[in-house]
């Protein structure tokens, strides 16, 4: 991620504690919907957001609470922009590979949306980064989950539930994240012509990303300059100046598919893109070995068509942007209308697994169902 | 979703069964499985009355399913008879997580021990829960792959148990604990139904149920089939032994290596006494007069690994390392690791009993906490040795004693409590890899507030609203609003 922001300022523990108390009081002294708001860079992810004009809107504090590079952890307010956090880490030669599309995203917003960055193949999913979270529940309890150390198995792993919860379990106030040394060199390359993503991956030890858009293979190599040089020679990949572009369009989504079904899905998506001459335009970028496919379309029908292909391969598509208001015909097979929201798409298109457990979890954090109602189709 | 307030009931306790109840229970389990694999004779029950920790309890029956359907049948049978149940792998846990409380049916998964599928291209395997940790790595070694989490008990512990405890090991420093290596788990839920948590895809709709199941210590059901990540063997691998004339210098080297921008694959520390004991036991070539040794492993691609070796040499020397030995070949590497992994065997030679602790402290506080641990042991007149995962601050103070000495257990527990409180006071946590089980339940209140525990109780109840799955573990009594404080009957710690 390029450094585009000034380093985040300091934030005292007292300030965080005070803010948490204010948030808890605000929740307890009101009723109705509660919405945690960050930078709104992922505002449309998932189900529809409650009307903020008729909800209690809460913001987390911004700034670094504690950072000692020798600990490989950083503690910050959840409202800290990821870019400014990255600037702090960069000064010490470290990073936290959160890799949002927009570095203006807040740490809390990114975690709540749960969307992992492009380097997941090597550095793991977003949820592995969150060590400890302080948050306020729907009934106004100030709660700490997890622990501040890099290793911890004390109690149930509550922070993990917050990642991807879209603000439905708590208002995240402060987080501790696991960092890592910045790699000396980070080089995007293109795979040799005619060689599949799977074959390119096999030629490399530990690439950070292997992505394909159906036309070429894009590979991110990170590490010691001489190792990258050697891997470029042995794999036949060619260095390029820039990362592959994320699919862009008014309708966007993220497919999650079993890694074993990626090959078939990519073939189907390729056919969908090729057939788009007289229909909606659909572009995509598939992260090989991960099972994530970023999709953009020029219309709701295009994104719904990609969703249907994902579901046919045992996967699903999470809406990231663009209304999928349903006329009753377009939603993919297996689509659920459990939200009871009529024609509005629930953002997921599939029923949640183990819905009873999910609903009970929601109740444990938010007994009155006030936090971001409808954002996850429970 | 209906806006109803959950019922904050107390944690459920189960009364002891009568002899007649037991006979009917075992008969039904025998019908559900096979009479040979449902047992209740006293010898069998005694075998399953504890794990490798110090607490012991009592099972009502023990059964050995071979399929998911049999696990589900055992759970359903237990519930029909009003008995809780407890899933168990090899029983190598140290926190009493597999110690039966409230006379549960112990469901042992050791006979479910097949590696079902290995996908070389996508680097994962489906395994049954009874597969032993090291057996999985052995089964895929010829493919150039391995299973990264490597707890010290890896020759004996099962993958199912690893999932329950979110097991760690030396190589979790770089590669993460079990949590980072479990893609999916087929689980028999506490109500006896079967589900799949997680999957081979990167994200699931809704909350991360797989993630919260891993490390739940058997309180959310029993894993019957697990998809684990396999890692490619690194092209380059170097193992170093550094020795120091004082502990502070070794600890400063640990922080220095990390601060220098290097995260080794493993970074282990042993203090003077354990180094000498291990050397006398296995002859690994450790210097007998060292105040501390560091065992460091780096892996990856060649140039990066060569650089890493030089960083470690430089940081170590700058902090006063007496020698920096780089293993010349696989044989020497294996010997160095044999020393580390034989530590517990070595202790058995000097005293009949030991009590192993497992706290984590910030890496930069290692020196002061180690000093505190020695002072606590002196005060309680207990011998302590330290062999631990220094890279992630995961301390393992080993209190070594002879349990036949009158009054010694009180001093062992007092020392243990003091070590735990010291670790928490510097910003550490109760457990890095062993879990809470029964052993550390009472200490949970030192790390978590009543509101923290209330939410954790709600998470557990989401999976097991009736409290049948491994009752009385992890959370202290009173975690729920309205809970009654009690010490479970029939438990001897």
Quick structural summary:
Chain A is 25% helix and 22% strand. With 378 residues, chain A is α+β, with helices and mostly antiparallel strands.
Descriptive overview:
The complex is a heterodimer of chains A (about 375) and B (about 500). Chain A has about 375 residues and is of the alpha+beta class. Chain A has 10 helices and 17 strands. In chain A, strand 3 and strand 4 form a beta hairpin. In chain A, helix 8 runs antiparallel to helix 9. Chain A is globular, with a radius of gyration of 21 Å. About 5% of the residues of chain A have low confidence. Chain B is α+β, with helices and mostly antiparallel strands. In chain B, about 35% of the residues lie in helices and about 20% in strands. Chain B is built from 16 helices and 20 strands. Chain B has a 7-stranded antiparallel sheet with strand order 15-12-14-13-18-20-16, sandwiched between helices. In chain B, strands 5-6-10-8-9 form a 5-stranded antiparallel sheet. Chains A and B meet through strand 7, helix 5, strand 9, helix 7 and helix 10 of A and strand 9, helix 7, helix 8, helix 10 and helix 16 of B.
Task: Summarize this structure as a short list of keywords or feature phrases.
heterodimer, A: 378 residues, alpha+beta, 8-stranded antiparallel sheet, 5-stranded antiparallel sheet, 17 strands, globular, B: 493 residues, disordered N terminus
